Structure formats: C-alpha cells, structure tokens
Amino acid sequence: MSEKITIHLYVISDSVGDTAVKVAHANMAQFATIAFIFHRKSFVRTLDVLKTQLEKALVNKGLIMHTLVEKELQKYINNFCAEHGLFCQDLLQPTITEITRRTGVEPARKLGAQHQLNENYFKRIKAIEFAVKYDDGKDPSGFLRADIIILGVSRTSKTPLSLFLANKNIKVANLPIMPQAKIPDELWKVDPKKIIGLTNSAKTISNIRMERMRSYGLEEDTEYSNINNIKKELKYADNLYEKLGCQIINTTKLSIEETATMILDALNLEDTSYNL
C-alpha cells in the first residue's frame, strides 16, 4: 500500500484567521487521499513573527494562505514567496483592489475589522444567551420571541444547531419531542413558518444514543437506545409536525452547517453575523 502524500498548509492572519481557515478546510476536504498537516498562525502583526512562520513554511515547502491587510506585511510575504518559489494565496487583496478600482474608495486596512465590538457583535451575544436560556424547552415563553423554534426527538442535534444559528445572530429556542411529555401551549401560538421539525433515521439515533451511554460508563442497550422505541418516537414527532404544519428536515446525511443553511433558506432569514 502506497504511503499518503503529505502537504503542509499554512494559514497566516493578522487577526483570528477564521476566514482563511474555512477556505483552507474547504480545499483540503476535496483531497481525502492526501495527508494535510495544518498550521495556523493568528495575530501576525510584526515582520519578525511573519518571518518566523515563512521560514518554517519554506523548510516544509508549504502552501500559504493569508488574510494580511497591513501593506508592509503583504509586500514581505508576497516577495518572500516569489523569491523562494512558495505558493502564496492572498484571500483578501484581489477583491479589495477591485472594489477600490470600481469606487475610488481606499480600504481602511483595519486589523480584525470583522471582529470589532460593534452593535452586530452584541446582537450575536444576545442571540447566544437566548439559545442557552431557551434550550431544551426549559422556558416555553421563549417560543413567542424566537426567530426559529427547533423540534426533534432526543439526539437530533437540536442544541448544537441552535448555538450554531445563534452565532449567525438568530434567536433560537428548541424543544425535545417525547410521546410522554405534554406539548407546551405556547408552541401552538407560534407561526408554523418559524418552526422546524428535525428527523433522522432510527438506526442513526440509536447509534448516537448508545455511544452517549457508553461515554457515561453505562449499559448501552436500554429503552432509550432501543430502535423500536425510537421508531415510535419518530412517528409521534412526524404526527406532531403534520399537525403544526411546520417545515421538516431529515438530518441523516446533513452536517450542522448544511442543516442551518437549509433552515435559513426555508425561513428566508439572513445571516447577518458578518455585518460591520
């Protein structure tokens, strides 16, 4: 069996570096047979720090992706990579240059501009606090103030999905669906267009529940993980979704990111988390 090809990929940023990291991972995901060694260096704001990272990349013949906005650092990294034959992709400058060309407006070149503590930032914090407060149906009054209500049987990723959407400035409440539990009156007062019912395959849910039991050091074969019981739960949830007239999303083959995008599209909600 042949050994995997190894590539060192360096992400360099003068701020957090999330933009470059997402682009890097999107690229790496296309090459399952390659062993990527990922290097992330955030808050690079001096030439000394940048030089150190570039010397390491040179030794490993690495690929470099960066989101540097300070002109001196941009010039140095571009010249260094050109001189030494290193691949270097500037993720910001081409678009910034084009915007300036079209408008005549010069960029602010403000470090970490998209992470500033502005009104949008505090709106996101409030959305996260909202998701925590109204998680798992702890306070049904939140249903009447939420942008989205997520329903689903246990282990359909309601809480992670709620927090992911909260990071996009969306106020989310969620409710676990159980045949033996009463549905809160508040839910019937909500516009069905704001409600999302999650479903999944019984086998997938059973596996997740058994893994959860094992992580607690408990017996995995229980009524909670029994596939026949789960099928009954899913049937009950499907009947509830039909009565509510809400949107249903099967998350069996979906990541949280994909599910969140489908929800935003279905409800015509906009991700405002990047508004400056």
What are the SSEs and their pairings?
Layout: E1 5-13, H1 18-28, E2 34-41, H2 47-59, E3 63-67, H3 71-84, E4 88-90, H4 93-103, H5 119-133, E5 148-152, H6 158-166, E6 172-176, E7 195-199, H7 202-215, H8 227-244, E8 247-250, H9 256-266
Parallel strand pairs: 1-2, 1-3, 3-4, 5-6, 5-7, 7-8
Helix pairs in contact: 2-3, 5-6, 6-9, 7-8
Characterization of this structure:
This protein is α/β, with parallel strands linked by helices and 276 residues long. It folds into two domains: 111 residues, Response regulator (Rossmann fold), CATH 3.40.50.2300; 148 residues, Rossmann fold (3-Layer(aba) Sandwich). It has nine helices and eight strands. The strands form two sheets. A four-stranded parallel beta sheet has the order 2-1-3-4, sandwiched between helices. Strands 6-5-7-8 form a four-stranded parallel beta sheet, with helices on both faces. Helix 5 runs antiparallel to helix 6.
Q: Could you give the count of β-strands? A: 8
Give the helices and strands as they follow along the chain: EHEHEHEHHEHEEHHEH
Weakly predicted, low-confidence segments: none
CATH class of the largest domain: Alpha Beta
| CATH fold name of the largest domain | Rossmann fold
**What would you report as the Rg, rounded to the nearest angstrom?**
24 Å
